[in-house]
Design goal:
The complex is a heterodimer.
Chain A (H helix, E strand, L loop, with lengths): L5 H4 L1 E6 L5 E9 L2 E9 L2 E3 L3 H9 L8 H10 L3 E3 L3 H9 L2
Antiparallel strand pairs in A: 1-2, 2-3, 4-5
Helix pairs in contact in A: 3-4
Chain B lengths: L1 E11 L1 H16 L6 E7 L3 E4 L5 H4 L2 H6 L3 E4 L7 E3 L2 E9 L7 H18 L5 E3 L3 E4 L2 E11 L2 E9 L4 H7 L8 H11 L3 H5 L5 H16 L1 E6 L3 H15 L2 H4 L3
Parallel strand pairs in B: 1-2, 1-11, 3-4
Antiparallel strand pairs in B: 2-6, 3-5, 6-10, 7-8, 8-9, 9-10
Helix pairs in contact in B: 1-9, 4-8
The chains are: A alpha+beta, B alpha/beta.
């Protein structure tokens, strides 16, 4: 695959979290494995720059089986996400 | 009682306001200044998007340019906001002076707005995560970041709203339901003008909300100026970040 055109192949998913924020996700997956992901939306992450760590962490994970791993990752790295939970993200992309 | 520096209201474009906010935060982190509050207005009107949003997904950039509306990405998370008839507050306080729980700290700081609105005869309440409502209608949205032991929270106090103009600038996921969304927003957003039928002067509101924030947070306000460091840091952040496409179009 040519890196420059990856973006064009990415699937866009909009998912409104119940009682939370709007997730706008771009996802590239192969055989149920996350190859590339961009998580956008009106949520909050403390610190903000941790979004890049989260996106990197998700690469190689199964699209429908990462929420508890992400829970641990957030806790271990003292990252606080407000507006969605790892399970919301899994539900948003797991069915894609 | 603890002191909070008050910087007199600044009217300027969005990119510079964002740069000044971050410069004040950086100054506090470096120990060059302490808790600070200021109010500002956006001239020209602007749309700000949250840290995690994409400019191209949220805003019709061509229409914004044609309408003379600025666009800027904030350092804080949250959603896209059309800043037109609005008073914005910005607060930099030590983390020690607010609850450590983030949603609780939003509520704590937002009490400043709720008390100010009460002074104007408007009864409002906090709605988690980051909104203030009059009844079921939003009158204020707020966004917070934390860095180096300090909290930067800025937010809107809506003076008046132009929903049609807002929707000409903001992209909606589904154009077919745009009319319904406009109707929904009209039913879910309010302003000082709609609640009081009064056009308050910005100077008057600055005094009201300076007093209410001080009271809510337990500070006494002291008049101050931006320091040379803050002015230079703001210029640097303006050039290198907030008026730069590599920042504004990052996501």
């Amino acid at each position: 695959m040519i890196p420059g055109i990856i973006k064009d192949n990415m699937k866009k998913i909009d998912y409104k979290v119940d009682g939370g924020k709007l997730l706008r996700i771009e996802l590239l997956q192969e055989s149920g494995i996350i190859k590339k992901i961009k998580i956008k939306g009106d949520f909050f992450i403390y610190p903000e720059e941790a979004i890049f760590l989260i996106e990197d962490f998700l690469i190689g994970k199964k699209i429908d089986e990462f929420s508890s791993l992400l829970d641990d990752f957030l806790r271990e790295n003292k990252i606080e996400v407000i507006g969605f939970a790892p399970l919301d993200l899994e539900v948003a992309i797991g069915g894609s | 009682m603890k002191k909070i520096r008050h910087i007199k209201l600044i009217e300027d474009r969005g990119a510079r306001q964002m740069a000044i906010d971050e410069a004040i935060l950086n100054s506090a982190i470096k120990g060059l200044s302490g808790n600070t509050i200021r109010f500002y207005t956006w001239k020209p009107s602007a749309i700000s998007i949250g840290f995690f949003q994409s400019m191209k997904e949220e805003i019709d950039i061509d229409i914004a340019k044609k309408s003379g509306v600025d666009v800027v990405r904030r350092y804080t998370g949250g959603g896209a906001v059309f800043h037109q008839h609005e008073l914005t507050y910005s607060l930099v306080v030590s983390e020690k002076d607010v609850p450590s729980d983030i949603v609780e700290s939003y509520e704590h700081i937002c009490r400043g707005i709720i008390l100010g609105l009460a002074e104007l005869g408007i009864s409002a309440s906090f709605s988690p995560i980051n909104d203030i409502l009059v009844g079921v209608k939003k009158i204020s949205g707020n966004a917070q970041t934390r860095k180096g032991g300090y909290v930067l929270q800025h937010g809107t106090i809506l003076l008046d709203i132009d929903v049609e103009k807002m929707f000409s600038l903001l992209l909606v996921p589904n154009e077919k339901i745009k009319d319904k969304l406009i109707k929904n927003v009209k039913e879910r957003v309010t302003s000082l003008y709609l609640e009081s039928a009064k056009n308050y002067k910005e100077d008057f509101l600055e005094e009201i909300f300076l007093s209410s924030f001080s009271k809510a947070l337990g500070f006494v306000s002291v008049k101050g100026e931006l320091s040379n460091y803050e002015l230079q840091e703001a210029e640097k952040l303006l050039k290198e970040k907030y008026e730069n496409d590599s920042w504004n179009y990052k996501r």
